Amino acid sequence: MKQLVYYIDKGNNHFEAFYEYMATDVGVDEFYARQLCTYFIMRGTQFELISNEMQEDVEVLVLKEIGRNLPGEDEQNFRGRGIHIEFRSPNERENYRLLSRIPCETHFDVIRYLLKDVVDVPLIGQMVVASTEIDEDRGVYVMYVTELKVG
């Protein structure tokens, strides 16, 4: 893997190159973590991942534009502060309530969470993953989680 390229599906089989990362700029672990996120936030706009492809040494992520990103409760910018995951309610009526935050040593630590359907949320316990995103604007991974119903 040498490159990760985001494209936006503009319809009618038209795809527009949107953003790219070179393997020399970010590690393979970050390439994989990004590919596992269902949503991508950049420049105040929310995108949904609709296709994850490979073309030789290039990782291709195809996005669909959803619209303006609505900010959640207690958002912080993590640029230059390391790798972090936020756990939030997926409920817009609750303003995407912040449940917990954790720092991570590597993107491989993030991948461990992104691969799961049920995760341990600090100080809360096990919760079901509803969706995941990389918020490029704030430099943070976000996991939207709901209660684990047993029985």
Task: Write a concise keyword list for the protein shown above.
single chain, 151 residues, mainly beta, 10-stranded mixed beta sheet, 2 helices, 53% strand
Mean pLDDT: 93
Helix share bin: 10-25%
What share of residues are in beta strands?
Answer: over 45%
Question: Mind summarizing the main beta sheet?
Answer: 10 strands, mixed
Number of helices: 2
Order of helices and strands: EEHEEEEEHEEE
Structural class: mainly beta
Distance between the ends: 43 Å
Q: Tell me the total number of β-strands.
A: 10
Low-confidence regions: none
Shape descriptor reads: globular
Radius of gyration of CA atoms, rounded to a whole number: 16 Å
Describe what this molecule looks like in 3D.
α1 packs parallel to α2. The chain has helices at 28-35, 107-114; strands at residues 3-11, 14-22, 39-42, 45-55, 58-68, 83-88, 98-104, 118-121, 125-135, 140-147. The chain is mainly beta. Strands 1, 2, 3, 4, 5, 6, 7, 8, 9 and 10 form a 10-stranded mixed β-sheet that branches. The protein is built from 2 helices and 10 strands.
